[in-house]
């Protein structure tokens, strides 16, 4: 049996999402960096493995609660959930955050010049995420839904123009990683979303919203990278064989 430290971070979080809080506490990326083993990820960041494993085991051995088992969901249901929950969140919060960050940078940027860089990074994120969501909703997700239909009808799916589901998935993974890198820079620039002593209420709200946005993005990317995409690749391979 594979020991806990040898298991990929994404697989651990896919099994029990409560472990995401432990990985976040130690600064370990469970979404974009989910394909690394716990041992390798800890070594890369010079994190002591033993206390990390102790905390993970505590969470994993807690009595099961009402946690949603996304692993058990069919791909088309997961697609619908991601679009209606996380894609909707991005579209609703992005314009509000853009307005707040622009105002904070304009008012406080002279004393805190890092705000201009934070504002620029989020503006880039808004554009890139907008294109990313469209590609998922118009190209990748409809094909994943057709795979589930083919499974129900016990037929081989028609080959898509992009060849295999692995191709758009690879593009989405690359874009997820780029977004993860961007928000890592934002977190560094904000000192983990710490509001300075002279920060006003708008400053505070902007940073709280920005942190919430990043947290939602982590959950969003986790569901795709660690559950939906592997499930879809496996389904396509099963149907074609």
Quick recap:
This protein is an all-alpha fold and 241 residues long.
Q: Could you please describe the fold and organization of this structure?
A:
There is one protein chain. With 241 residues, the chain is mainly α. Helices cover 71% and strands 0% of the residues. Helix 5 (75-108) packs antiparallel against helix 6 (114-153), helix 6 runs antiparallel to helix 7 and helix 7 runs antiparallel to helix 8 (201-240). The relative contact order is 0.14.
Tally of DSSP helical segments: 8
The outline comes out as: globular
> What percentage of residues falls in helices of 4 or more residues?
over 70%
Order of helices and strands: HHHHHHHH
Outline the secondary-structure elements:
Elements: H1 9-15, H2 19-25, H3 38-44, H4 49-60, H5 75-108, H6 114-153, H7 166-189, H8 201-240
Helix pairs in contact: 1-8, 5-6, 5-8, 6-7, 6-8, 7-8
What are the key terms here?
mainly alpha; 241 residues; single chain; globular
